[in-house]
Amino acid sequence: MASWREAWRLSGAAYTELSFQTIYALRQGNLPPTTPSWDLVPRARRRVRQSKAVLSILLAMIAVGAEVLLRFGGSTVLGQGLNPILFQGGVLTGTIVLVMTFLWWTALQLVPVLIGSSPLALLETLPIPARTRDRVAFLVLFRLVDAPVVTTVILFPLAVAFGLGSGWAGVAMIPGIAAGILVALALALRTGRFFARRVQGTGGGRGRTLARWSFLALWTVPAFAMFVVITFALPFFNYLDNLVLTGQTAFLTFLVAIFPFPLALLPALTAAGIPAAHQVGFDPSVVVGMAAVYALALGLLGVWLVRATRRSLIGLPASRPAPRRDDTHIRPRSVSFAILRKDLRVASRTPTFAFLILLPVLNATAVGLYTMLSNPPGADAFNLATATVASAALLATFFGPAFFAIEVIGYSYSRSLPLTQRSVIAGKLGLILLVYLVSSGIVFGLTLIKVFQPGVFFLFIAAELPAVVAAALLELGILYWVAQRRGLPIVNLYAGAWWGAIVTVPGVVFAGAPLLAFYLSRTGAPALALPGMAVLALAELTACSALFFTLPGKRPM
Amino acid sequence: MVTSASAPPAAVPLEIQGLQIRYGERVAVDDLSLSVLPGEIYGLLGSNGAGKTSTIKSVVGLVRPYRGSLRIVGLDPDHDELAAKAAVGYVPETALLYDSLTPREFLEYVSSVRRLSEEVATQRVEAYARALQIESEFEEPLATLSNGTRQKVILIAAFVHHPTLLVLDEPFNNLDPRSTRIMKELLRDYVSRAPRGVLFSTHTMEIAEQLCHRVGILDAGQLKGEGTLDALRVTSNEGGATLEQIFLRLTREEDAVREALQELGGA
User: Fold this and answer.
1) Whole-angstrom distance, CA of residue A85 vs CA of residue A268
2) pLDDT tens digits for A268-283?
């Protein structure tokens, strides 16, 4: 126990360093903020606490949602004859998966920073027993998500207890929630290490770049898992119902034995009692047996986590091939294109930036594939495709200013270069447009197979294009304007969520206005919908271009 | 200094007049005046916190002076910031770069911003990379390279556009003896071929002694002495003294060094 206390104390220093680097990115060349130096560390701690508070609130909302579903969902959401135990088990399975992917996603954002900034390396040189160092590493990993984890452990059993009207059911939820947390931490650790090795640590060349972008698509898996749980919950219940109705007991038993279903069924079985379970259509002893097996496996996973975290986090695990004579050919491009190319190269080795680019693209791919495979009627496919183009436009403009965060890296060096505001803005604008056009192009290509309306669809993409450019120019212009008014380096400014909102909200409004005009006028005056949208988008572009060209061409970055 | 009799007088690479730099209430540099002449390597010497890096950062536009004026190749950076930056090559004290780029990708970015042609950029980068023996690491991310290799990359980035003024903050940090020797010869050659200047800071007195045409000794943000080694010997009344001895005399640290050694002996 003393060793755990000591480990907790030691993990504080490493965790503070991690918070400091996460907020200020000084090791990546960001400038220190103008905050008084005595407030730098407390401010970093405050910022991290605020982020964790937001995450905890989101988890609390999921807990409340689960409670409401358990209490009322069976009758009002489904309104059909699915057995309550199966329904409750399904809801709790979804809840555990949601919590697991949410925590995995959250910790995954920080694990590569934890590996890169090596706050644990110093402890390796001090006379501290290996077991204590193992525990310190595990506790630093745990502290990435400590407040959300505590919220989860307290609120979810309570939500289940209230939802099912049984205190023991709440207690029976604890193994499921613990499983979700442990699996999330293990996944974050292993995937974080994978990204540090295979993405951040790999070199140049087209083949390796392509491989990196494919690995980066995996980064979005936890985010999509959350999306899938929410989207496919209802079809899943219908599927379960169908299995019960058709008497496929063996398959149903197999299905409910898959992780984490047995752990999610435990509270439902506890609340209903074993006799009621016999009427469900599967053998409850299988569920209880599998729950015990999973609980044992998770105990072992916990022990492994404590032992393996240090080995996974220490050192830079980059995969470096043997030295060879490499390409020293230099291909300079125009300044704006060089900024765009640099951003793409940085993003290809920085999952958090890559996510901003890949999310709209993958969203477009998913919807495009769905349209292609699900055989919807022509008009529906067109609606779905235009909605996806609209979401690509909104996502690109929403995330667009965040691409400025790439400038955080190496900022002190960049400012010594003769870069103008215009060329930097043009480079970022290029990236936003690239995201919009690639996403739209994917939907366009995949949807055309089902709905052959290339003209209309192409016009829709083209009509929205000026609005995307206008929105991006507006956002980047506001960003510079606020930075100059406040006399702050532009990259520090964007670190605050409040400033982020001031910048992105007008941009999203500009990108969204022509889309809204299109959807509103489509029912009343369909012939005018597309021309109206295009006129509004062009008007926005004219106004924002005027704003852009008032920037002195030679004003430095 | 290499100029022909008929050539117009070359612009002075760097002139600093009455420079004051403040961080809040703290004055880091006070009333500093110096110039780097064409064909000259000027060494800025000083203890930790003497104001060397602050001075250098103000020259490259990372820190705004509180008072005083700067002229880079005759340009006022307040009015011609981009032209001034275009004339400068900079090596920071700590090579905080785009860690996720490879040396080739980083140098492509810098060459693009410097508006170099493909031919010129490739020819120069290849020559420097071969001399500093880093070609085999051109495709590995900077984050995975040694500090010495990163330093070589940033040195190439500073030289690649052949700037009129090179501003180097502890440029020999982390370099191996071979590369240090090459860089010293390169700097001598660089200023002898054209009316260019080099301002560099260092703690290493031997390097300053071997390389600099003139040195300036900074202490607590103020210039305590300036000139050639011979001139400084005269100023400090230290005939035949090394630069280290002159430095300690001018910064009045001789007694402090002696006391520190005595205390350490007692420990």
Assistant:
1) 6
2) 989 887 777 777 777 7
**Domain definitions of chain A by residue range:** 48-313, 335-549
Classify residue B240 as exposed, middle or buried by CB count within 10 Å of its CB (0-12, 13-18, 19+): exposed
Q: What ipTM does this complex have? A: 0.84
Span A43-69, pLDDT tens digits: 777 877 887 888 899 899 999 999 988
> Rounded CA gap, A506 and A501, in Å?
9
**Mean pLDDT, all residues of chain A:** 81
Which residue is it, tokens 């890169």?
Answer: A116
Please count the structural domains in chain B. Answer: 1
Q: Provide the domain limits for residue B32.
A: 10-76+201-262
Query: Cα–chain-centroid distance for residue A273?
Result: 39
Q: Does A455 touch chain B (CB under 8 A)?
A: no
* pLDDT score for A22: 67
How crowded is the C-beta side of A1, counted as CA atoms within 13 Å?
0
Instruction: State the CATH number of the domain containing residue B258.
Output: 3.40.50.300
Q: How far apart are CA B122 and CA B183, in angstroms?
A: 20
CA A178 to chain centre: 22
Partner A contacted by B111 (CB < 8 A): yes
Give dist(CA A553, CA A335) in Å, integer.
13
Beta-carbon separation of B136 and A410 below 8 A? no
Distance CA A393, CA A396 (A): 5
Query: What is the CB neighbour count within 10 angstroms for residue A42?
Result: 10
Span B119-146, mean pLDDT? 90
Break chain B down into helix, strand, coil percent, rounded to 5: 40, 25, 35
Asked, for residue B122, whether it belongs to a domain, the answer is no
| C-beta of residue A261 within 8 angstroms of C-beta of residue A93 | yes
Name which of A322, A290, A209, A262 is nearest A96 in CA terms. Answer: A262
Instruction: Closest CB to B104: pick one of A200, A327, A420.
Output: A327
pLDDT tens for each residue of B64-118: 899 999 999 999 998 888 899 999 999 998 766 787 888 999 999 999 999 999 9
Category of A452 on φ-ψ map: left (φ > 0), alpha (ψ -120 to 50) or beta: beta
Range among A351-355, A385-389, B19-23 rated most confident? B19-23
Cα–Cα–Cα angle for A248, A252, A257, nearest 5°?
Answer: 155
Smallest CA–CA distance from A198 into chain B, residue: B141
Shortest alpha-carbon distance between residue B61 and chain A (Å) = 6
The residue behind tokens 């700590």 is B94
B90, A416: Cβ pair inside 8 Å?
Answer: yes
pTM over 0.80: no
Cβ of residue A554 closer than 8 Å to a chain B Cβ: yes
CB contact under 8 A, B61 and A205: no
Is B64 part of a structural domain of the chain? yes
CA Rg value for chain B = 19
Sign of dihedral through CA atoms A341, A345, A347, A348?
positive
Question: Is residue A351 a contact partner of residue A195, using CB atoms and an 8 Å limit?
Answer: yes
B45 alpha-carbon distance from chain centroid: 10
Tell me if chain B has a CB within 8 Å of the CB of A336: no
